[in-house]
């Protein structure tokens, strides 16, 4: 069970209250899923307590921008971090690292540091997990609302393209998620080539 620091509780309450109810994918449940995945990955890397603290807070802010807007929400999440975190004792240097992590989750992902690689892999951890179809369906539902996408064939093509391009950045992702992701990619390839 996670115990949250005051600054973590602050942003969690904000997400709970302010995230739009129709975010079937990017809701609070996604942030918590990414949080759990990141802690699992972080445990396999040799991180300091300070790095874990910054990673945890970056995850809680990485989709916080959705409280204000759908497009370019990462920028908004950084703005929120810059506004809220100084009062919890975070320095400009800390916030720069946190915003680096938030911005690294933008698609296409371009993580540079180990912390950025962890948050990126955690954000898309589900691509190589057993609940892939269940979670990707929630994204399809959300895209119907926000991207006006209604065609399942079109959705399969988007997924195929996305999985084709995606790569895991951490050893954990490569070892524990890549194989299953490739399996899903093959299944989706078959659907696309059969025209379903």
Order of helices and strands: HHHHHHHHHH
Report the total helices: 10
Report how far the terminal alpha carbons are from each other: 42 Å
Major sheet summary line: none
Quantity of strands, as a count:
0
CA-based shape: globular
Oligomer: single chain
Q: List low-confidence stretches.
A: none
User: Helix proportion of residues, in percent?
Assistant: 55-70%
SSE topology:
Elements: H1 6-18, H2 28-42, H3 49-62, H4 73-84, H5 92-104, H6 114-123, H7 132-146, H8 152-165, H9 171-176, H10 178-193
Helix pairs in contact: 1-3, 2-3, 2-6, 3-5, 3-6, 4-5, 5-6, 8-10
What does this structure look like?
This protein is an all-alpha fold and 196 residues long. It is built from ten helices and no strands. Helix 8 runs antiparallel to helix 10 (178-193). The longest helix is centred in the last third of the chain and has 16 residues, at 178-193. The mean pLDDT is 96.
Quick recap of the structure?
The protein has 196 residues and is mainly alpha-helical.
List its traits.
196 residues; mainly alpha; 0% strand
């Amino acid at each position: 069970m996670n115990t949250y620091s005051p600054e973590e509780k602050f942003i969690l309450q904000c997400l709970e209250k302010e995230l739009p109810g129709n975010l079937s994918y990017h809701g609070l449940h996604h942030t918590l899923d990414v949080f759990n995945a990141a802690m699992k990955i972080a445990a396999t890397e040799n991180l300091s307590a300070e790095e874990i603290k910054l990673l945890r807070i970056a995850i809680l802010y990485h989709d916080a921008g959705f409280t204000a807007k759908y497009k370019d929400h990462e920028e908004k999440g950084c703005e929120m971090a810059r506004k809220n975190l100084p009062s919890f004792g975070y320095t400009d240097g800390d916030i720069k690292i946190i915003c680096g992590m938030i911005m690294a989750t933008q698609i296409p992902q371009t993580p540079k540091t180990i912390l950025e690689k962890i948050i990126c892999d955690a954000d898309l951890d589900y691509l190589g997990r057993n609940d892939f179809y269940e979670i990707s369906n929630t994204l399809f539902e959300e895209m119907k609302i926000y991207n006006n996408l209604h065609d399942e064939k079109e959705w399969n093509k988007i997924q195929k393209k996305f999985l084709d391009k995606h790569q895991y950045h951490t050893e954990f992702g490569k070892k524990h998620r890549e194989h299953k992701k490739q399996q899903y990619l093959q299944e989706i390839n078959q659907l696309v080539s059969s025209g379903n």
